[in-house]
Amino acid sequence: MLQRLVFALVLRPLIAIAVGLNVRHRERLPVAGPAIIVANHNSHVDTLGLMTLFRLRDLPRVRPAAAADHFLERPGLLSFIARHIMRIVPLDRRAREKGEDPFGPVLEALDDGAIVILYPEGTRGEPERLGRFRKGIWHLAQARPAVPITPVFLAGFGKVLPRGSFVPVPFFCDVFVGPAIGPDGRPAGRDAFIAWLEEAVRTLPGDRFRETWE
Questions:
Q1: How many CB atoms lie within 10 A of CB 129?
Q2: From the centroid of its chain, how far is CA 178?
């Protein structure tokens, strides 16, 4: 209830004021889980922008994956928002040192029927520039092959709140949603799969942003 109230009364109006959103193929966003959304990542506004595209009643199922040490292990408002409003799936960047699966919480969320938002680049990059995907998404696809993957390309959010900035700047943004990718037709090898998924995200805007992300 708290999450829906905050999105309805605060976050959606804030995004509407600060960001002009042009969404292509919004109907392709998953309405039920388990499902994975993969997108390029340029700003903390990326997640807010994506989550505002879902119906309020569906928000409890939408779970962005994010670094636990950055969002949960710090006291105060940020941790509260991460836990109770954004409801992030925590990724422990020290998990391998502990002999644990860093994507264990993501698998648990998927098994619970969540729609998980993932940024396979692993960190925020330059606006409209798609970085190389890390291999984590490959391991998830192997562990849960039946879970559909929806590619999304975000444009403009990195200019609203670039990395290192704290004050948002109003800017018009685009969201391009691709068709969900099922298990059929995916490349078998890790490197081929990652390159294929990168291309699925990269080509969503067509030629409109080609000069900025090539």
A1: 14
A2: 14
